[in-house]
Amino acid sequence: KHTIYVLQVTSFGLTSLCKHSFEDFEQLHAQISSKVSFQLPTLPRNYWWGNDDPNTVQERVPRLAVFLQQLLAQPDILSDGEELLMRFLNMPKAAAAACRFVLHTSQQWLQRLYETTAEPEGVRVLKDSQLEAALVMVLEAENASESKRLACELLARRFRSGGETESMSSSFRSCQVKVLMSLLEDTEDQEAERAMAPSVRTS
After folding, report:
1. C-alpha distances in angstroms, 131 versus 98, 168, 171, 197, 203?
2. Angle between helix 54-72 and 22-33 (nearest 10)
3. Which of 38, 47, 115, 164 could serve as a FRET partner for 61 with CA atoms 20 to 30 Å apart?
4. 3-state secondary structure of 59
5. Residues with Cβ < 8 Å from 154, sequence gap 6 or more?
6. pLDDT per residue over 66-125, tens digit each?
7. Tens digit of pLDDT for each residue in 148-178?
């Protein structure tokens, strides 16, 4: 058996699942490290043997969750053009666009946000209070009329969808990670998925 860490990612009201081995986390760490000028949080230790020992796995789960949460709090990582972290987390396109727009409020990401929230599922990200505030700022700022038009249409789309605004204390906390863990066989993924249970939740 080898250990697969199953991540349930909630971002701007949208939820996705992804599966990664510990080696995937090491690769992500190396890739992001090569692109930023600061030192990343350390990963749990990798052993020559015993990496799939239940005690080792249980010790790693909360540390990997904290590792991801720390990455999500770094604007430079969230602004990465290759979207390494967002793709690792299988973040929905609308949530990724919302995250980038809140960070930069540029017309490029405003346009992408407009495109990715056209589907019913994508509209949910528009109910985030931080995103709504960023759209209002575009309307109030002295910028291109096209940006104002897109912001106005996005706010209209949000209010047509109904429902209450989802309040968050900061834009970065809109990316929350809940980690579920189970041991998966290479050929028995479905059976193991049915048996997995929640182990850690971060906020």
Report:
1. 7, 10, 8, 32, 18
2. 30
3. 38
4. helix
5. 110, 113, 114, 117, 126, 135
6. 888 888 888 888 888 788 999 999 999 999 999 888 888 788 889 999 999 988 888 889
7. 889 899 999 888 877 655 554 444 444 444 4
